[in-house]
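Page 37, continued from 36.
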């Protein structure tokens, strides 16, 4: 097929929608804020003199991706075990003619069954709102089946982009989940988030533990050698034959 025919096929199958949304989300938002996220968290920790976010290796933006693309304005409305604490210091950037445009990130406490809080920076992938809106707009001719497929394609495309982005490395974590399986569980979302937080802690602990082992080995190898000095008088080599 020609380039025009391929473009027509992609347009008819709505294949360009998720691809465009993923690139727009990256270029217009994530590429701008993720490189500055850890500095914002550091300022927050220094200002509040607390250790809510203890491990720097977990200072990431946790991006929620429900397959249904249903996104509430407040996470507490979705799950009462998710509690908003406060916003991190603003990230201010001059952008597209707007001076000192402000970008915000929110810090949440996620409570487990024992009512213990687990903290993270959390937000939804806002382009999913566009997919949801298109599926409810007759002019878009965008079915629920199209929405599901595009949600998956959006995730794959965005993951591929960020996995190859030096600017955003180690500053994000996707939390993609099938919210159709909630089955009336009022704390389905908090449980999904906690699974990822616990997995992340295990991964980071394993990495830090491995680095400690390497450091111990390096220190042992870098110690000054001990000279083995004998008090015996030197003997002639002829005595060995």
């Amino acid at each position: 097929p020609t380039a025009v025919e391929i473009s027509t096929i992609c347009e008819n199958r709505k294949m360009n929608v998720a691809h465009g949304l993923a690139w727009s989300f990256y270029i217009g938002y994530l590429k701008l804020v993720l490189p500055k996220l850890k500095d914002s968290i550091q300022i927050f920790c220094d200002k509040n003199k607390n250790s809510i976010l203890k491990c720097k290796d977990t200072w990431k933006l946790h991006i929620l991706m429900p397959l249904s693309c249903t996104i509430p304005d407040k996470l507490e409305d979705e799950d009462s075990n998710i509690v908003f604490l406060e916003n991190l210091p603003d990230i201010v950037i001059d952008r597209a003619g707007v001076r000192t445009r402000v970008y915000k990130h929110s810090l949440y406490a996620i409570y487990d069954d024992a009512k213990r809080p687990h903290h993270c920076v959390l937000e939804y992938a806002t382009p999913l709102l566009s997919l949801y809106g298109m599926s409810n707009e007759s002019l878009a001719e965008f079915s629920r089946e199209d929405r599901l497929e595009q949600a998956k394609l959006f995730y794959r495309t965005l993951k591929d982009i960020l996995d190859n982005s030096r600017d955003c490395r180690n500053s994000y974590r996707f939390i993609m989940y099938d919210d159709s399986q909630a089955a009336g569980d009022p704390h389905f979302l908090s449980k999904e988030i906690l699974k990822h937080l616990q997995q992340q802690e295990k991964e980071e602990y394993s990495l830090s533990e491995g680095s400690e082992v390497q450091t111990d080995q390096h220190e042992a190898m870098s110690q000054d050698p001990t000279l083995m000095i004998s008090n015996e008088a030197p003997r002639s080599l002829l005595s060995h034959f």
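Residues 21 and 127 are 6 Å apart (CA to CA). Flag for discussion at group meeting. Residues 211-241 have pLDDT under 50 and may be disordered.
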